[in-house]
Amino acid sequence: MSKTDKKIHVDVSPIHKIFVPAATDSRTEKIQQLKQAIYRYRNQLLSEYLKHDIQNSDIERNPHGKPFLMAFPQLQFNHSHSRQHYALASSFELLDIGIDIEDLDRNVRFDGLAQHAFHPNELKYWQDLEHDADYWFRVWTTKEAVLKASGLGIRLSLNELDTRVHPSAQGGICHHPQIGSFAYQNFRLTDYMLTVAWRAAPSCAGFQFPQIHIVQH
């Protein structure tokens, strides 16, 4: 699979550079502080990318809750965060962008979540690979990125979606009748797994990856 001239821009930043919690014993308050810090940082990155000041009031949501910019409806964007990282993907050239980022040192009940969330085909691959952690993270982030890209999120059960993640490939294409076809690319970086997804043609014939430019801040 070759690359096209279509582009996706991805910004990745450590959470500690975005958010320093104020002194409080309330978990609810800390979560709210983090949420507001992430929104401010998202707006800052979008403002720099668009060379136009972006505020929360500029962002609307579609019927499924996916955000979009009224002033720049052609811009597709999506963001994700883990405990340690934040990621924002944006593109003027591709439709229905989704992104997910997960820390590789995350304490995960790998088998329990795989039994619950993996499609039977994914589960078989994972078992054949003797429960390989990298494969688990590629499947998990692909599911999240594709469902976020579709706008349905958790409205589609995770185990209904066969991502078709292959043990030796770092990207591919998957389809579900409820959401259509999506392509994706996985990136395993030093301490996190990142997956970007976008709407694609139903067939992989002539399929090409876009140029995905990752900027680590």
* Biggest β-sheet description: 4 strands, mixed
Strand order of the largest sheet: 4-5-1-10
Structural class, by secondary structure, is: alpha+beta
- Tell me the number of strands: 10
* CATH superfamily placement: 4'-phosphopantetheinyl transferase domain
Poorly predicted ranges: none
Q: Determine the number of helices (DSSP H or I, runs of at least 4 residues).
A: 5
Strand content: 25-35%
> First CA to last CA: what distance?
29 Å
Number of domains: 1
Q: Can you write the helix and strand succession as a string?
A: EHHEEEEEHHHEEEE
Percentage of residues in helical conformation: 25-40%
- The CATH top-level class label: Alpha Beta
Q: Name the average pLDDT.
A: 92
Features:
217 residues, alpha+beta, Ribosomal Protein L22, Chain A, 4-stranded mixed β-sheet, 4-stranded antiparallel β-sheet, 5 helices, 10 strands, 29% helix
Describe it for me?
The protein has helices at 15-18, 27-50, 110-117, 120-128, 133-150, and strands at 3-14, 59-61, 67-69, 76-81, 85-91, 98-103, 171-176, 180-188, 192-199, 209-216. It has 217 residues and is of the alpha+beta class. It has a single domain, classed as Alpha-Beta Complex (Ribosomal Protein L22, Chain A).
Q: How are the secondary structure elements laid out?
A:
Layout: E1 3-14, H1 15-18, H2 27-50, E2 59-61, E3 67-69, E4 76-81, E5 85-91, E6 98-103, H3 110-117, H4 120-128, H5 133-150, E7 171-176, E8 180-188, E9 192-199, E10 209-216
Parallel strand pairs: 1-10
Antiparallel strand pairs: 1-5, 2-3, 4-5, 6-9, 7-8, 8-9
